[in-house]
Write a structure and sequence with these properties.
By secondary structure, this protein is mainly alpha-helical. Helices cover 67% and strands 1% of the residues. Strands 1-2 form a two-stranded antiparallel sheet.
């Protein structure tokens, strides 16, 4: 069967599976909707957390960015992996002991202020919408590439599917759906990675294959008999230098920016509300720790393989298209052109595809096919001082990888199903955060405290429905590549929630004045910096214009440091928290599991300042 037929079959089956699971495990109470009634087994919760964590950025975009950025792209791998360890060790057990459904609820209770809680709700919504924009974009790219529809149409299709199982299922339905999605996405990621590793190096383990030598079959695929017996990375370095690129294993990104991006991604992880909320779905504190360990195992399977996927894809991509006549170009290349994810501009008129450094066209291509559909304006404005004639969207590389390597059509379709699983699992978790922030923290917790459970559940579903629509708009009008947009969300989380959570757990002296001032200063600074370079002045988004060489993806680290500084200074010059709050923090630092009971802050400490 054709790739399109296989894709329709596998995608349809998986979507029906997700919807069926959501209906079967649909939420019937607010406890089900927010925390799955705290009844999940640690292994299942770990698997669901893995699916929640492995978003479209991890599945689609991370390997794509590493593939094109080389060593510089490793910041995403290090930041997201290290961040999860930080979350499991420093944050999850303590918040689980505190016994709150959401991060804003923790902020409001720990800092004895409804105003701080309201501000935390707004931060959670901003972070979640920024994050979910990347997921909906990923859904649109998968549908566009394999179902031969425009990206925006793909986003709309994804909106309807996510809307159904997130709004109906709640946390309970989402969790069991995410277990199925993890199984699908990890199989979809690993099968082509293993196949290609065997083809290129003879090693069946991808994360060992990246450091192996090219096999005879691999040399035949590359069309270079001299590559046999040489290390794969050395071959790729030579390909890069021959085309005018820097060596793949070298880097051009400022070192300070790499450091700050890694820190922002790590610390942002510990402040992401959609991941933190997963630790409230298990019965006991020790189960929260166990599920964190299981989730790390499930996550490492993909993250350890991503650099290998990037290297395999980059090597095969270059050798399959450079200097090839367009008429003889691979089918995957021409198919991707139809959606604007790849474009070719014949600058010298020789009919051959030239690939090298520089921009192929000015701006990004329209989503309407080959150059002829772009119009003469694009051709007229094409930069001719570079040899590059190929535009390729970084988010397409993982999806195209099996086709580039010539794997069977069913494997190609399986990757499409896996990409959808990754994007939708995280999108559903984020929608739940938005719904709980609006219904539980804002409406029930502040505006209508006497509202019934049935009314709260209705508001939660309405909030999730509205969030789907807004998320779809963000997917249609993205701020950048999927991984870039997600990195912005991590920076916002690092600059707002992380300091307030850490100081709330480990510092008895931190008060509401310091926490609010720190969150406000951190997120305003980070949002302004990101907005300037992505929305208001994108042409200035280059290293020479960045503040001290720090990119928008890394500026969250500066915002985090500003947040910590403000918290420390303001808390020291303003009244200390009430004594019962300080006693609560003292007990919170010793996360001893005592059955199902959780620590609750006293009513005296809930005064509003």
């Amino acid at each position: 069967m054709s790739i399109l037929a296989w894709t329709w079959i596998l995608v349809s089956v998986t979507l029906v599976l997700y919807i069926g699971i959501a209906i079967h495990a649909r939420s019937k109470s607010t406890s089900d909707f927010y925390a799955a009634d705290r009844s999940l087994h640690p292994v299942l919760n770990g698997m669901a957390t893995g699916a929640d964590w492995i978003s479209a950025a991890s599945f689609l975009s991370m390997a794509g960015l590493i593939s094109f950025m080389g060593r510089d792209g490793s910041v995403y791998l290090m930041g997201w992996t290290g961040g999860y360890v930080l979350l499991a060790m420093l944050v999850a057990p303590y918040l689980r002991k505190y016994g709150r459904y959401t991060v804003p609820e923790f902020i409001g209770d720990r800092y004895y202020s409804q105003f701080a809680k309201l501000f935390a709700v707004l931060c959670a919504i901003l972070i979640s919408f920024t994050y979910i924009a990347g997921q909906m974009r990923g859904v649109g790219i998968v549908f566009s590439r394999f179902l031969e529809v425009p990206i925006n149409t793909g986003v709309v299709i994804g909106m309807f599917v996510v809307f159904f199982y997130a709004v109906i299922g709640g946390m309970k339905g989402i969790t069991y759906t995410q277990v199925a999605q993890y199984c699908i996405l990890i199989i979809a990621y690993m099968i082509p990675a293993i196949f290609i590793s065997i083809m290129m190096t003879g090693n069946p383990v991808p994360f060992f294959g990246i450091g192996s030598s090219v096999s005879a079959e691999g040399a035949a695929i590359l069309g270079d008999s001299s590559a046999q017996g040489r290390h794969l990375l050395a071959v790729l370095n030579d390909l890069h230098t021959d085309l005018g690129f820097a060596e793949y294993t070298s880097g051009v990104r400022p070192k300070i920016d790499m450091l700050f991006v890694v820190i922002a991604l790590m610390l942002g992880t510990a402040g992401l509300p959609h991941v933190i909320i997963r630790f409230f779905t298990v019965p006991r504190i020790r189960d929260a720790r166990a599920s964190a360990g299981w989730a790390l195992i499930f996550i490492v399977l993909l993250y350890a393989s991503a650099p290998a996927v990037a290297v395999f894809a980059r090597t095969n991509f270059i050798t399959s298209i450079h200097e090839v006549r367009y008429d003889d170009a691979p089918e995957w290349f021409k198919s991707a052109e139809q959606t604007g994810l790849i474009a070719w501009v014949d600058k010298n008129g020789d009919g051959h595809i030239q690939y090298g450094p520089g921009d192929a066209i000015v701006g990004k291509p329209k989503q309407i096919g080959h150059l002829g559909a772009f119009g003469q304006q694009t051709v007229k404005n094409t930069r001719t001082d570079f040899v590059n004639e190929v535009y390729i969207d970084r988010d397409i590389i993982v999806l195209a990888n099996p086709e580039i390597a010539g794997l069977p059509n069913w494997v190609v379709a399986l990757v499409a199903a896996g990409g959808l699983a990754a994007a939708m699992s995280t999108a559903a978790g984020l929608l739940l955060v938005i719904a709980s922030a609006i219904s539980h923290d804002l409406i029930k917790g502040m505006l209508m405290p006497s509202m019934s459970e049935k009314g709260e559940l209705l508001w939660a579903r309405c909030a999730a429905a509205g969030a789907v629509v807004v998320a779809g708009l963000f997917g249609i009008f993205p701020l950048g590549y999927v991984a870039q947009v997600v990195a912005f969300a991590f920076g916002l989380a690092a600059s707002s929630f992380f300091p307030a959570i850490i100081m709330g757990i480990f510092s008895k002296r931190t008060n509401v004045y310091g926490a609010f001032t720190g969150m406000l200063g951190g997120i305003l600074f980070t949002t302004a910096y990101i907005g300037y370079f992505t929305l208001f002045n994108p042409q200035a988004n280059t290293p020479e214009n960045w503040w001290f060489g720090i990119s928008p993806e890394g500026i969250g680290t500066v915002g985090m440091l500003l947040n910590f500084t403000l918290i420390f200074i303001v808390s020291r010059f303003t009244p200390a928290p009430p004594q019962d709050v300080q006693d609560q923090v003292q007990s919170l630092r010793y996360p001893v599991d005592r059955g199902r009971g959780e620590t609750k802050i006293s009513s005296k400490a809930r005064r509003i300042y």
